[in-house]
């Protein structure tokens, strides 16, 4: 997964693709459990808002988790 975000596209809170992918499964678990993962991982939420590729991964995993 390669994201083409330059420094101008990131924010201070944005953890970046590597960190977002590292906690993605936990983030999905929290969301699927009806909790608010953005509260625990605000930097990851900021990343999904900034990075369409990671946001798509999250949406796909969440749909898979929800239909499980
Ligand atoms: Zn990303």
Count of discrete alpha- or pi-helical segments spanning 4 or more residues: 4
Counted up, domains total 1
How much beta, percentage-wise? under 5%
Rg for CA atoms: 12 Å
The dominant shape is: globular
Q: How many angstroms does the end-to-end distance come to?
A: 25 Å
Helix content: 55-70%
Give the tally of β-strands: 0
Poorly predicted ranges: none
Bound small-molecule species: zinc ion
The biggest sheet, with number of strands, parallel, antiparallel or mixed sense and barrel status, is: none
Organism: Trebonia kvetii
Protein name: Zf-HC2 domain-containing protein
What's this entry about, in short?
This is Zf-HC2 domain-containing protein. By secondary structure, this protein is mostly helical.
Protein model, in words:
This is Zf-HC2 domain-containing protein. It comes from Trebonia kvetii. The N and C termini lie far apart (25 Å). This protein has one domain. It is globular and about 35 Å long. The model has no long low-confidence stretch (mean pLDDT 87). The chain has four helices and no strands. The protein has helices at 17-32, 37-40, 42-50, 52-66. The chain is mainly α. Bound molecules: zinc ion (ZN).
């Amino acid at each position: 997964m390669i994201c083409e975000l330059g420094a101008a596209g990131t924010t201070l809170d944005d953890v970046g693709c590597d960190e977002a992918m590292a906690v993605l499964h936990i983030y999905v678990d929290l969301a699927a459990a009806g909790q608010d993962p953005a509260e625990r991982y605000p930097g990851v939420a900021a990343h999904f808002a900034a990075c369409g590729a990671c946001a798509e991964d999250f949406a796909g995993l969440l749909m898979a988790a929800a239909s499980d």
